């Protein structure tokens, strides 16, 4: 009972936002949209159709004017008595006779050309061709670009013979035949008629051709969303503002009945306002397709009262909503600032939100979490430092007893046998090694000091064994400055002398060089080498077994794994170590150390 009362008097944050949104947005939106849809649906559709009709009527007037100009040009040629008299006389001459022109015939030809040139001066420029039955022709364009007699080869030209009187044949859209117009005007439209004498015999033809772009320019003046086009009785597009659609079937004709002059139709999963109108000059149709949303986007003036009421309602509700949301989300904004400071690494900040809802609970949980994180970080850091120091001390201790035992035994044997000055040199080298081993407290030394240590070590070993080992060093000056773990190379040199060269004479080469993001150390010997199976086993053992396994045959377990383990403990970006060997030819150990780790520091040799 008390829990239910508490839930009602102190609702959760999610419930607060839900109730506020429902009261301030949901109810007015539902009411307004329902009212608006009920009042405006039919009126909007009717207004959209009327607007589309008006626009199509205006377009139809301009298109019809151009087509009528073509018809008027053919009419003039057909009915002008003076022109017809000249053309009939010319048509009755043989082609040879028409070529041998007298001055009067020349004047007549000039008059014909001037007449057909003047026909199109007032309207859109069109191309007029008059073909006579004897092969003679007249044209108002350059015949060098197109031979008028080529019209006889057109598929539709034979249809002209069946025409009577003022009947016309419209060819539809064709590729432009005028070479100088093809690039900008890829298509043309033509209308043809017959020229008949008093006995109804055909003595010639007149063809008027118009570039399709003259019409498409008119269609291009419509709205960007509107598609206006001319189609023929087969629903083939004859003119469109996009020439790519010309001579293509109207894809919408299968879904939309174009017999209706205007309608709201659905095509390609969208609603469109579709209007169509037949052209008076031929059987073509002018069709306009406008997306319904675009057609109704500007039909809002008649609903001004509804919009004013809607705007006032939303303004009031949004003010209330803004106030409530601000009060509710203020703790969230404060917690957001706290979390962002935590992201930057400030773990000392704490949240002071004390509300009794989910936000207050979250604030307390965040504070407890930060306290616990600080404790855990301190514990991890302390554990890591102690573990790291213990491991390094342990690994370092693994080298010293083993190494000192061998060296001291060698000195004892040398002094007992010879007692010469070489022992003094051997003892001097040993002193240096002992100093680095016992007195030096730093974990890392410069590579220059490491090479000096190796030289002393090889000097001692050469005193110990019968045959000497030659040490060849090739190190760049930059590598000498790098810091490396102390006694990094000594265990590897020991392996090369004892196991690689079998304590016999040989050569050991140390190479160091800098690369883009790391520096590389290579230790090569010309000893007995390692077999393929053993080599693979060693590489797998070093990189995967670590300190969990030890080998007591082949390479020294103290030497090889000790070097690899100390490398892994000394750098944040883990170094790589690889052994390459060929049996009977020698062994190469390659160490690659990335630059820029947390423990990497450059030092300079004094």
Automatic annotation (TrEMBL):
Residues 488-597 form the Histidine kinase domain. It is found in: Cell membrane. It comes from Saliterribacillus persicus. The chain crosses the membrane at residues 306-325. Keywords: ATP-binding, Cell membrane, Coiled coil, Kinase, Membrane, Nucleotide-binding, Phosphoprotein, Transferase, Transmembrane, Transmembrane helix, Two-component regulatory system. This is histidine kinase. Its EC number is 2.7.13.3. GO terms for molecular function: ATP binding; phosphorelay sensor kinase activity. SUPFAM superfamilies: ATPase domain of HSP90 chaperone/DNA topoisomerase II/histidine kinase (SSF55874), HAMP domain-like (SSF158472). Signal peptide: none annotated. It is a multi-pass membrane protein. One of its GO terms (cellular component) is plasma membrane. Residues 326-378 form the HAMP domain. The lineage of its organism: Bacteria, Bacillati, Bacillota, Bacilli, Bacillales. Its main location: membrane. Residues 42-69 form a coiled coil. It comes from the Bacteria. It catalyses: ATP + protein L-histidine = ADP + protein N-phospho-L-histidine. The keyword Membrane applies. It is an enzyme of class 2 (transferase).
């Amino acid at each position: 009972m008390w829990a239910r009362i508490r839930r009602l008097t102190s609702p959760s944050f999610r419930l607060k936002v839900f109730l506020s949104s429902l009261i301030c947005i949901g109810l007015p939106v539902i009411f307004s949209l329902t009212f608006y849809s009920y009042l405006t649906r039919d009126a909007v559709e009717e207004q959209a159709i009327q607007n589309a009709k008006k626009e199509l009527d205006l377009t139809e007037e301009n298109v019809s004017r151009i087509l009528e100009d073509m018809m008027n040009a053919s009419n003039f040629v057909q009915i002008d008595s003076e022109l017809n008299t000249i053309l009939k006389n010319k048509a009755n001459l043989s082609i040879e006779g028409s070529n041998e022109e007298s001055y009067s015939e020349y004047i007549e030809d000039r008059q014909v050309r001037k007449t057909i040139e003047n026909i199109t001066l007032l309207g859109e420029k069109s191309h007029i061709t008059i073909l006579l039955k004897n092969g003679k022709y007249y044209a108002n364009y350059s015949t060098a670009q197109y031979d008028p007699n080529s019209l006889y080869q057109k598929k539709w030209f034979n249809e002209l013979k069946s025409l009577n009187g003022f009947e016309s044949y419209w060819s539809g859209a064709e590729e432009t035949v005028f070479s100088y117009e093809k690039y900008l005007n890829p298509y043309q439209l033509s209308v043809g008629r017959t020229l008949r004498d008093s006995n109804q015999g055909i003595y010639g033809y007149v063809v008027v051709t118009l570039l399709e772009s003259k019409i498409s320019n008119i269609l291009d003046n419509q709205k960007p969303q509107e598609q206006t086009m001319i189609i023929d009785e087969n629903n083939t597009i004859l003119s469109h503002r996009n020439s790519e659609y010309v001579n293509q079937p109207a894809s919408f004709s299968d879904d939309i009945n174009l017999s209706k002059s205007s309608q709201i139709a659905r095509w390609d999963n969208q609603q469109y306002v579709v209007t169509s109108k037949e052209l008076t000059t031929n059987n073509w149709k002018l069709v306009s397709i406008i997306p319904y949303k675009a057609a109704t986007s500007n039909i809002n003036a008649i609903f001004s009262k509804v919009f004013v009421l809607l705007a006032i309602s939303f303004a009031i509700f949004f003010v209330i909503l803004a106030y409530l949301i601000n009060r509710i989300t203020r703790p969230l904004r404060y917690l957001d600032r706290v979390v962002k400071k935590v992201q930057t690494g400030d773990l000392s900040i704490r949240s002071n939100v004390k509300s009794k809802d989910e936000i207050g609970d979250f604030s307390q949980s965040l504070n407890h979490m930060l306290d616990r994180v600080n404790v855990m970080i301190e514990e991890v850091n302390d554990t890591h430092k102690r573990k790291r120091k213990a491991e390094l001390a342990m690994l370092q201790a693994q080298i010293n007893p083993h190494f000192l035992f061998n060296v001291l035994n060698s000195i004892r044997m040398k002094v007992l046998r010879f007692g010469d000055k070489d022992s003094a040199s051997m003892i001097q080298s040993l002193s240096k090694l002992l100093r680095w081993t016992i007195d030096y407290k730093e974990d890392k030394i410069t590579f220059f000091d490491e090479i000096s240590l190796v030289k002393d070590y090889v000097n001692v070993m050469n005193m110990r064994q019968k045959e000497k080992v030659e040490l060849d060093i090739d190190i760049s000056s930059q590598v000498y400055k790098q810091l490396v773990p102390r006694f990094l190379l000594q265990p590897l040199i020991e392996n090369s002398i004892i196991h690689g060269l079998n304590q016999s004479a040989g050569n050991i080469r140390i190479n160091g060089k800098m690369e883009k993001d790391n520096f590389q150390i290579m230790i090569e010997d010309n000893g007995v080498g390692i077999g393929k199976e053993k080599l693979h086993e060693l590489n797998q053992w070093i990189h995967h077994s670590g300190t969990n396994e030890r080998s007591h045959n082949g390479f020294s377990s103290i030497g090889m794994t000790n070097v690899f383990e100390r490398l892994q403990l000394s750098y944040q970006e883990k170094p790589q170590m690889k052994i390459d060997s060929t049996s009977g030819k020698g062994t190469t150990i390659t160490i690659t150390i990335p630059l820029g780790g947390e423990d990497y520091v450059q030092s300079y040799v004094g």
